[in-house]
Amino acid sequence: MSEPRNSTHEKILELAEAYFSEKGYTAVRLRDIADEIGIRHTGVYYYIQSKEHLYVEVIERSMARHREGMQAALDAAGPDIRACMHAIAEWLISQPPVNLARLQQSDFPALGEENAEHLAALIDDAMHQPLVEVLSDAIEAGRLSVPDAQLAASTYVCLIEMVHSRSSIRGEKSRVCGDLIEMLLMGWLAR
User: Fold this and answer.
1) What are phi and psi of 111, to 5 degrees?
2) Which CATH number do you get for residue 158?
3) Tell me: the pLDDT tens digits for 12-60?
4) Rounded to whole angstroms, how far apart are CA atoms 133 and 174?
């Protein structure tokens, strides 16, 4: 089944991304999206195959945006690790929170295994690999001492996402992220 690509389809995608981001996959009802757009519930199926298919399309679109945005931010930051970490943080907090923990713990188990694996790979490629590449280059050049670039990148992104998704964080999120970057780079132990 080929889905129509028009302004209504685009509105469905935009609204679905906001709803999935806020509520998670299982809590979103297609009826709510249809009501918000002003079409009949059954009319949504003219534009999408299923709720799961819509979710996959939304995450694919979001991860393409993240991959492009994070790579552009890193390219602009240059080789300085601190600048790269700030660039990643600024990119992430400029976007709706992804809520990686909820995706892994709640959303993906509700999907078919193939879709869950596909989306997990997309998330890794979009949200971790750009920073893994920068960290690996810095490790190779002797500018950074991290035993596992993949673990460091995924931990960092998860920490920034946590700061971003928590409304109870005191202070400006950019400043909080800056403090977090300094803790990670300088360590907690007195020297």
Assistant:
1) -100, 165
2) 1.10.357.10
3) 999 999 999 889 999 999 999 999 988 888 888 888 889 999 999 999 9
4) 23
